[in-house]
Amino acid sequence: MDSAVAAPPTSVPATLRKLYFLRFAFAAAWAALLLTTTDALGPLSTTLLLVYPLFDVAAAVVDVRSAKENGGPATPLYANIAISTLTVPALALATTSGIPAVLRVWGAWAVAAGVTQLVAGAVRRGLGGQWPMIVSGAISTLAGISFVTQAGADDPSLGSLAGYAFLGGVFFLASAVRLTRRARELA
């Protein structure tokens, strides 16, 4: 991992602000769609479950490019790409076994991705707007443990995943707003 904290930039990367706004919009739409299919694994819910980590990979790739262009640390982002990429086939397999298996895989992903997000936010805190990412990473880690626990419930549901995604999106929105304010201050 990059051990140095990102130095305050002379300008906040516009790509990062736009990416965070996009991640909020995606999470909100994804959560709304998943809420329509929380009690069964069908074609729509399975597709949504696989699309979410794929979107995470794509967003992390954009984030890595932005970090490299602006001299920022990218190691935690590479870890996120690997974790989310491995999650896709694990989720595909889990969807064939039922909602409890999905919750276990999603939980493991939430823990690993949460720790990675926490580290990435801490390393990049010099950019500004990263405290919501740090808090979100910590919450994701705790939520992941909760999903694994929910897998053993009498009537497990995918509903908690929708709430998790939406809350994560809200944290991206908060970071985007903070980065927008920082950009105005630096202008």
* Structural class designation: mainly alpha
* Mean pLDDT metric: 89
Distance between the termini: 31 Å
Quote the beta fraction: under 5%
Radius of gyration using CA atoms only: 16 Å
How many helical elements? 6
How many structural domains can be distinguished in the coordinates?
A: 1
Short description:
This protein has 187 residues and is mostly helical. Helix content is 76%, strand content 0%. The longest helix is centred in the C-terminal third of the chain and has 28 residues, at 159-186.
Structure description:
- The structure is a single chain.
- With 187 residues, this protein is mainly alpha-helical.
- It has one domain.
- The protein has helices spanning 14-35, 43-69, 75-95, 99-123, 131-150, 159-186.
- Helix 1 (14-35) runs antiparallel to helix 6.
- It is elongated, with a radius of gyration of 16 Å.
- It starts with 13 loop residues before the first helix and ends with a helix.
